[in-house]
Amino acid sequence: MEIKGPKIKKYMEEFIVKPGKDIKLKKFNTGWAIKEELKKFDDSEAKTKAQEILERDKDRLAKAQELLYADKSYALLIVLQGMDTAGKDGAIRHVMSGVNPQGCSVSGFKVPSSMEHSHNFLWRYSNCLPQRGMIGIFNRSHYEDVLAVKVHPDRLEKLPKELVKTENGTFWDWRYNDIRNFEKHLVRNGTVILKFYLHISKKEQKKRLMERFNNKDKYWKISPFDVEERAYWNDYEKAYEEMLAATSTDYAPWFVIPSDYKWAARAFIAEVIVTAIEGLNLKYPEVTKEQIARLMEAKKKLESGK
Ligand code: AMP
Ligand code: MG
Hints:
Blueprint: H1 36-39, H2 43-71, E1 75-82, H3 88-95, E2 104-108, H4 114-117, H5 123-126, E3 135-139, H6 148-151, H7 170-188, E4 191-199, H8 202-213, H9 224-230, H10 233-247, E5 254-258, H11 262-278, H12 289-304
Parallel strand pairs: 1-3, 1-4, 2-3, 4-5
Helix pairs in contact: 2-11, 3-11
Bound molecules: adenosine monophosphate and magnesium ion (MG).
Magnesium ion binds next to loops.
């Protein structure tokens, strides 16, 4: 049986990275004109409209999540990647704000610890996967191991030398392959995977970093390291392009989300998530006649007692 990917709407296909095709991120929009129904508006009208869509989708998401939780056969894994300041934290806060926290887990991944480096590279992510019924969000993910590590090969863990042959791209091809297989395994076991690359322009990043440097309350969110990383922008872009082309699959597609306008990105992400869960056609678990009879007996007992 062919493994199925998440359900999406026709217009969302535009943002999906076609499996196995080379891509150029410069050809992907970073602006907001993402939906036909939004294209006719100017910036401020579009913002209002996008916020309406987000509010509507938050309600739908709350209902969809309850069904996912009650049904307990599927899990949903949401992967968020993007350059610094792309809006990963904000997307989580806004999109998930209506969701029952009991049905949701968020895992953020920083530079791996020595403990984590002493295991295979997928180990730490495997430990954080959502259980059936749950939505698990990865704020950065196993993709860092073919992004940050590819841009900075000195960050690679200690591996046997003969396994790190970077000529011909073998080492990275293995990693892409491992990731595809890891995700295939998850999908075959009932995890729906949605992967979002929050696509911002270099100019927008500068603006957002400057906002942080100019606001004392945002100092905790920046480091001189962010400015140093920015110098590797082109290397990151190339690593992203190679990774997106190699790991977008029918069963676990990558969406390139135009993210220069945060409200547009959030509305779009919410739409994709809601569509994917609703597309599972879940139903509340059936209650048998015997179970109903026992429930009614218990009700009677409760009514007649103190
Ligand atoms: P932030 O999310 O801004 O707090 O930054 C976390 C940092 O950890 C980023 O610079 C990531 O590139 C880095 N990071 C996350 N995962 C890995 C990894 N597996 N290997 C190397 N660096 C990583
Ligand atoms: Mg950062």
